[in-house]
Design goal:
By secondary structure, the chain is mainly α. The chain has a single domain, classed as Orthogonal Bundle (434 Repressor (Amino-terminal Domain)). Helices cover 54% and strands 5% of the residues. The chain contains five helices and two strands; from the N terminus they run βααααβα. The model has no long low-confidence stretch (mean pLDDT 91).
Length: 76
C-alpha cells in the first residue's frame, strides 16, 4: 500500500492547507479525500503535488507492504 501520511507532514511544515492545495495546485476535493484515505491517485496528481510543494515523491509518500501479500499475487 502507498501511504500519504508524509504529505500531511510536509504540508503542515510549509503551512499549506488542503484549501490551498485545491485552489493553487489544482487538485479537487475528491482527490484530497483519496489521498487522506491512502487510495489510488494518478501519477499526474503526484507530479502536481511534488511540483507545488517543491519536494520529491519519497517526501510525500511511502510504500508499506500489505498485510496479506498472497492477495496481490493472484492479480494478473
Amino acid at each position: 500500500m502507498i501511504c500519504f501520511d508524509r504529505l500531511w507532514e510536509v504540508m503542515a511544515k510549509k503551512k499549506i492547507s488542503t484549501y490551498q492545495l485545491r485552489e493553487r495546485c489544482g487538485i479537487d476535493s475528491k482527490t484530497v479525500r483519496r489521498l487522506k484515505a491512502n487510495d489510488n491517485v494518478e501519477t499526474r496528481t503526484l507530479n502536481k503535488l511534488c511540483a507545488f510543494l517543491g519536494c520529491k515523491l519519497e517526501e510525500i509518500a511511502a510504500y508499506i507492504p500489505d498485510e496479506h501479500p498472497e492477495e496481490t499475487k493472484s492479480r494478473p
